[in-house]
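stuck on this chain:
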Amino acid sequence: MRRFLKEAEVFDPNNVLHYIAEISQFHRIQGSKELPEAVRFILEELRIWGIGADLYEETYDGESRYLTLKSPIAWDVVRGAVEVLGTTLTTAGTPLVVMAHSPSGSAEGEVVHVVREDDWEKARGRIVLVGREWREAYRRANEMGAVGFMAYREGTGEEVPYIGLFLTKDDLEWARIPAVAVPETLARKIIGKLNSGESVSARIEVETVINERQVLPILYAEIGRPPFLLLTAHICHPKPGANDNASGSAMLMELARVLSRLYDDSFRFGFAFLWVPEYYGTQAFIERHADVGKYYAAINLDMVAGSPDRAGSTIMLVRTPVSRFSVVSGILEYYLDLANEAGKSFSGSPLPRLRVKSFPYEMGSDHDIFNFFGIPGTMPITWPDRFYHSSGDTIDKVSRESVEVIGRAVLATALALAKGDGEELQRFARGYAMKYLGELSRERKTDEVERLVMTGLARDSRFLGIESGHRFEPEPWLTWKVRGLLSERLIREADEKLAEEFGSLTRDRRVLVHLHELLMLAELLPRERAFEALREEYGEIDEEKLEKLVGILEAAGIVERA
């Protein structure tokens, strides 16, 4: 298996850095004109390399639906400015000064910092300053008669944060006031003066264009024949967005270039490449363009260039959920460790050069959607990133080492899966299953997880031509009728009160992860065993909250008893 990492040395991280620089020139907000422009740049590069690709053009119009998501409005920023405490911020410095999807407008008045419920009583005629739950706060600011909205995010320091409203056409009935973002340092100065009893005035100017429609671009290419290993990255996010996610899109370009030259008809897999706007494009692709049965697994590339020194990043490998167990996570984990070797211990053992760690399934990117639809999805990602979703996510912060380690590991994984010897793949599958179960069993029992691992290995075997695992017949508790990313906004379409309860119960992000995994488990196992499998996978879970959430989903018609 080590030989495939040697073959992967054709992956060139310098090419990736070049593509990151190119892509990060576009302000790639969902619904904006520069998002399809960035995709057309990638399409042209693919054509130069002789790779045939399809550009599917769906629509941003504020009302088109892609599974559980309603498209945001078609929107572009023209200009914007904020004046407060002698500081002027403009879109000439960074387009992030204007919150994505903000309406046009001007506002001038005193600033009120909203922290508690009773602070909203002071909002009328003022500019509201908010540090969390921005979209709900923006709606409330409109309802309470505020004239402007100013947002900040903790942890961004002197950088301007990226905060999107993702307004739909229906939202334009109430969304009237201009919305801007300011650095945390400036927000702290404002808050300090307000807390000392001083008044602070601000002036906001925002000019944007809300269009009838804009292209939602989905770029898809295949090399070879099915079944395919699917490699994917989201292309959206604001300028510069170097790590998030020009890096993933750029790495996907280099992988397509290399694999187009390495592929031959003896491979057991072809390769598919997908560039999409995050979540919206993935759900549109699954709903309107994909034959999910022809994909073996998905590797999602998101934020793959974070630096350990400047950004404070660790290379995380997010494994497939146990409901979609696959050896693909193990092979990628294996090659990440090998690609990360540098230097020797005092006895000659290899040492790691970067921090690398594997984690149980976590949500937050497009691998989620593939898992929901039965395609095991895993994700390498550099996290945390102290410049995440901010004007500081520039190319000088990215790490060539991270790009090299992740890129060569992904390429080696693709080659091992496509042309590895059946005997060594079977041996590896057995070894990874033992490792995975061994890690869990150090903390808790694994009776249910063992069955799911065997089921996953049986699926792997069908694609890899090996004999491993055993398929257990499903005994479903629930049917997931309306499949896709679940959110408070989706529930609100059915019932406002249910939506409020859903939002309150899922404030802890882990609960939302556990809920989605529970739904996948519930299509395989009866109720008690689904909860037991979830406990075995994650340890502590909040069963009471999850029961309530399942009840909300039933009431909203999203799931039903099998």
